[in-house]
Amino acid sequence: MANNVLNKKFRYVYFNATLYIIGLNLLVYLFLHFTDIRINNMPLVYWLSLVPAWMDKFYIWQYFTYMFVHQDFFHILFNMYVLFMFGTMLERSLGSYEFICFYVVCGVLGGLVGGVVYRLTGMANIVVYGASGAVYALMFLASVMAPNTRVLLFFFIPIRLGMVILIFMAIELVGVLTQASGVSYVVHLSSMVIAWIYCLARFRISPFKVWKSLFRR
Asked: 0.70 exceeded by the pTM?
């Protein structure tokens, strides 16, 4: 099948973009936590986070900037740890340009879809922030590229990566259906759905077909 615009490959280049993304996250975190900048008497963190109630104001930058805002040290520590763990592996395999494209597309569109869902379900006033949507997308892609890789679930349960992402998707779906608060389950799940579509459209890989092999003896 001939390549088209959707799946035309980038020239392979590797320049450790994962570390640059981590560095940018850390800089934004430190800046927001050690300054008190306000715009129209509203803290800067609200302008950079994703606020679904403001979608009709077309603050389109929020769909990108929300990925670099974190609540506290442990929030950013966990996200950056997972980003480093899966990001470095995927970037070496895909190349830096493809990696950045995947990360940004899944993070931005995951935030956009999540924001729409929050508005439609009466939760428009929620404030969404954090790299976890894009990070979940990376985990999803890793589970497609290397489904049989052994990892430690919750740091002590050995399990194949393909099974991990299925478990996480189930957890996120339960969180969405129960409207559990405090975690952006909708954005996590939305980002993984975007990652699924990305795999189908750009890589021409069906995650479902890949994961079927996990259940074969």
From this structure: yes
